[in-house]
């Protein structure tokens, strides 16, 4: 039986659409089998099938199953330098934050509320980078560009919970600085061990609950043509861009939870520092004012860097989303901030530098 030529062409292109593309090479280059022609044939097959049947939802609309993460494959000429740089950054981040936790734990003079919250901040930075870096490095070297539904949702949840918890902790640390400067005589009474533990538990509780609605809604999205994430991790907005179903509920939820968690925390930080500044300005001695303000510079620097990069990325509508900008800003708060936190808090703090010097001498 002779098959009409039109059906032969449709069958060939359908096979191209159904066969999964081979993975990227270790340094981002496409293998010869995964050509632009094959990708074009796949799209043509989808469009022909939709035009002939009119039932796109039953044939081509699929649930969240497996994603292909593009990463930095659009920069093939610098794949090796990027891989080496990311490995060094990841190791430095782990070493710096683990060192902060070790020094604070082993020095009784640093067992104060500020350093108690700093250990939580270091732990969050370790978790935030560890949920992204290993998979991203595997994309460079081990050809593991695919990520499953469970892995992607887990990455979204852990990353979102760490970001929320960190912002809440920064607001608690601002309140700690307010009590230390504005009520120094009652500082140990107000910020006692029980209060610090309760505040940290509250931050973790709210932070772990915050991304659950987003994760559930994202797991219910459907995708029509592409499962390719043009990012280096499962970034929420990049996934929403691929959806053929409405994401208005997720957008609304982002603004609502942003108002509840982030804006409330930011207002607490602003209020605390306005009162701190008013008290510092009343100090007669220039040395006294400088000393009082120096206890806040590290925290202010981290808050500005962290909140600035996050608000630039997420506090805007999806229509204004830019992939290149998102990648750069994501690199900033995933790489720069976790590696800067140990440097900022250690270099600007005399107590911590003395404890580090003492640790070196005993070693």
Task: Provide the helix percentage.
Answer: over 70%
Mean pLDDT: 76
> End-to-end span in angstroms?
85 Å
Number of strands: 5
- Beta strand %: under 5%
Number of helices: 15
Rounded radius of gyration (Å): 25 Å
| Spatial ordering of strands, largest sheet | 3-2-5
Shape: globular
Poorly predicted ranges (pLDDT <50, ≥5 residues)? 1-64
Structural class by sheet pairing and helices:
mainly alpha
**Main sheet: strands, sense, barrel:** 3 strands, mixed
The ordered H/E elements are: HHHEEHHHEHHHHEEHHHHH
Please, could you describe this protein's structure?
It is a single chain. The chain contains 15 helices and 5 strands. With 363 residues, the chain is mostly helical. It has a 3-stranded mixed β-sheet. The protein starts with a helix and ends with a helix.
Structure, briefly:
This protein is mainly alpha-helical. Helix content is 72%, strand content 4%. 29% of the residues are buried.
Provide key terms for this protein.
single chain, 363 residues, mainly alpha, 3-stranded mixed β-sheet, 5 strands, disordered N terminus
SSE map:
Blueprint: H1 5-18, H2 36-53, H3 56-59, E1 62-63, E2 66-69, H4 79-106, H5 113-130, H6 133-141, E3 146-148, H7 149-182, H8 187-190, H9 193-209, H10 212-219, E4 222-223, E5 228-229, H11 236-242, H12 248-281, H13 286-314, H14 323-347, H15 350-362
Parallel strand pairs: 2-5
Antiparallel strand pairs: 1-4, 2-3
Helix pairs in contact: 1-2, 4-5, 4-6, 4-14, 5-7, 5-14, 7-9, 7-10, 7-12, 7-13, 10-12, 12-13, 13-14
């Amino acid at each position: 039986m002779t098959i009409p030529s039109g059906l032969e062409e449709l069958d060939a292109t359908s096979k191209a659409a159904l066969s999964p593309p081979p993975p990227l090479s270790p340094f981002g280059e496409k293998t010869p089998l995964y050509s632009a022609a094959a990708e074009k044939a796949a799209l043509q097959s989808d469009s022909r099938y939709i035009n002939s049947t009119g039932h796109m939802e039953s044939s081509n609309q699929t649930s969240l199953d497996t994603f292909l993460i593009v990463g930095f494959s659009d920069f093939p000429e610098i794949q090796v330098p990027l891989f080496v740089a990311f490995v060094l950054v990841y190791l430095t981040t782990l070493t710096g934050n683990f060192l902060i936790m070790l020094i604070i734990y082993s020095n009784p003079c640093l067992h104060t509320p500020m350093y108690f919250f700093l250990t939580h901040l270091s732990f969050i930075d370790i978790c935030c980078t560890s949920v992204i870096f290993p998979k991203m490095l595997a994309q460079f070297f081990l050809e593991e560009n695919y990520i499953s539904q469970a892995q992607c949702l887990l990455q979204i949840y852990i990353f979102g919970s760490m970001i929320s918890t960190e912002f809440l902790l920064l607001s608690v640390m601002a309140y700690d600085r307010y009590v230390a400067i504005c009520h120094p005589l009652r500082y140990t009474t107000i910020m006692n061990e029980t209060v610090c533990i309760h505040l940290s538990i509250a931050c973790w509780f709210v932070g772990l609950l915050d991304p659950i609605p987003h994760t559930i809604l994202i797991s219910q999205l459907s995708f029509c043509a592409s499962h390719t994430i043009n990012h280096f991790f499962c970034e929420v907005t990049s996934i929403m861009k691929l959806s053929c179903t409405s994401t208005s509920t997720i957008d609304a939820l982002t603004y609502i939870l942003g108002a509840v968690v982030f804006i409330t925390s930011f207002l607490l930080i602003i209020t605390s520092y306005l009162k701190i500044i008013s008290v510092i300005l009343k100090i007669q001695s220039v040395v006294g004012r400088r000393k009082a303000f120096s206890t806040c510079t590290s925290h202010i620097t981290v808050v500005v860097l962290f909140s600035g990069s996050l608000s630039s990325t997420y506090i805007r509508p999806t229509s204004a989303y830019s992939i290149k900008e998102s990648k750069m800003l994501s690199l900033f708060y995933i790489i720069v901030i976790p590696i800067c936190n140990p440097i900022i808090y250690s270099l600007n703090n005399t107590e911590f530098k003395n404890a580090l010097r003492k640790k070196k001498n005993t070693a």
